[in-house]
Design brief:
This protein is α/β, with parallel strands linked by helices and 394 residues long. It folds into two domains: 199 residues, no CATH class; 125 residues. The strands form three sheets. An eight-stranded mixed β-sheet has the order 1-11-12-10-2-7-3-4. A hairpin with a 2-residue loop joins strand 8 and strand 9. It comes from Acrocarpospora corrugata.
Length: 394
């Protein structure tokens, strides 16, 4: 290892990472290269504690169902429910089983017990109500929006109309629709009418926002807008599931990340007077460059939530990617980026990507991992990363 490569790296601390970021940062995206590894979540928790205690951050948004996260947020902000209940009902994707996520909520709740309401830490989910096997039905989001508006406005639709159009929830959550567009109800006449209603209800929510905010509260209105955003996005996603076009899967990936970007945008807007936000999700969701994935023999590409939100926030968005060296028998070859970084002395390091790029006398070879759930850093995209976090072994 040359000394110049060592000069681009520092032992990982929250301060070492934020020293590489623009002072204008309002949203910091911390990516992980694979799910289910506690080391990355523990590092996230350590970073978030630093951001809260030293950088004025007051919120975190993770790659989890945005509606389920309301349960987790109610616990950390107001102590509603028990921690065990919240871990089972406040996370999607099985993330409630993570000890690090348990510790995150426990720590946030303990912090908030000593803080006035305005200063309390908030917890968000930035993902849609989506799982590997398919999407949730739009009923919870759409009816919550309808009920909020109906309490204050005369609406052209009642709950009975919505229930009739929605039909049984099993029609929407049929897992066969993921692989067979003909099994989806997303393009039925009823689904088309629901999309129009969801659009009209959100317009009413916006048009009457001064009255509704005064009659309820800014927080109640924000939650109603979350339900409006989610209902429209879910109906759009189900329409995508019903599309037989060969670009169907690419479109679904685009729709998911657009949903995540809109959620992050709403969080940044809500938190604008309180402080910046940390977002935690897969590198592929937070990176600035176009995401690529091969599913069986199908090459997919789409713009990530990070790429989308970066066009809106400019230098107020920062992206810190995380990668690793060795995982059991999966050892990176010495000519890869991860192989070069494995020669660093620290078990966890923060690397300045710009300085690193100037020290490399050749382009590193892309790493081909043994584990298909891990996506390595593309060496060609180093210039689009603000900070690179490296864990030598997991």
């Amino acid at each position: 290892m040359t000394s110049s490569i060592r000069d681009a790296a520092r032992q990982f601390t929250g301060g070492a990472l934020t020293a590489l970021l623009s002072p204008a940062t309002r949203l910091l995206g911390l990516g992980e290269p694979t799910h289910g590894v506690e080391a990355f979540l523990e590092l996230r928790n350590e970073l978030f504690r630093h951001l809260v205690e030293h950088e004025g951050y007051r919120s975190i948004a993770i790659e989890s169902d945005c509606l389920m996260a309301l349960t987790a947020d109610a616990y950390v902000t107001d102590g509603i429910g028990t921690l065990d209940e919240v871990m089972s009902r406040g996370f999607s994707h099985g993330f409630g089983a993570s000890p690090a996520n348990h510790e995150l909520l426990r720590w946030m709740r303990a912090c908030n017990e000593q803080r006035p309401p305005y200063e309390r830490l908030r917890f968000y989910g930035c993902d849609g109500p989506l799982e590997i096997t398919g999407a949730a039905g739009p009923r919870p989001a759409l009816t919550a929006l309808h009920d909020y508006l109906a309490a204050h406005l005369d609406l052209a639709w009642n709950r009975e109309t919505l229930d009739e159009l929605l039909g049984p929830d099993e029609r929407w959550t049929n897992p066969a629709a993921l692989m067979d567009p003909a099994q989806s109800v997303g393009r039925t006449p009823e689904a088309g009418e629901l999309r129009l209603i969801a659009d009209d209800l959100r317009v009413l929510l916006t048009a009457h926002s001064p009255h509704l905010t005064a009659a309820t509260s800014p927080d109640d209105w924000w939650r109603a807008d979350l339900h409006a955003r989610t209902a429209a996005a879910l109906l759009r996603y189900h329409a995508g599931l019903a599309d037989p076009a060969p670009t169907r899967v690419d479109a679904l990936m685009c729709l998911r990340d657009a949903m995540m970007a809109d959620n992050l945008d709403a969080v940044v807007t809500r938190e604008s007077r309180r402080g910046p936000t940390l977002a935690f999700a897969h590198n592929r969701h937070l990176q600035r460059d176009k995401s690529h994935l091969r599913l069986a023999d199908l090459p997919l590409q789409w713009w990530s939530a990070g790429a989308i939100i970066a066009t809106r926030l400019g230098d107020q968005y920062a992206f810190a990617a995380t990668t690793f060296g060795t995982r059991g028998p999966d050892v990176p070859p010495p000519d890869t980026l991860e192989g070069l970084l494995s020669t660093l002395p620290d078990t966890r390091a923060v690397i300045d990507p710009g300085l690193l790029a100037t020290t490399l006398d050749r382009k590193p070879a892309p790493r081909v991992p043994a584990d298909h759930t891990y996506f390595s850093i593309d060496p060609a995209t180093i210039g689009q990363i603000d900070a690179l976090v490296f864990i030598k072994e997991i």
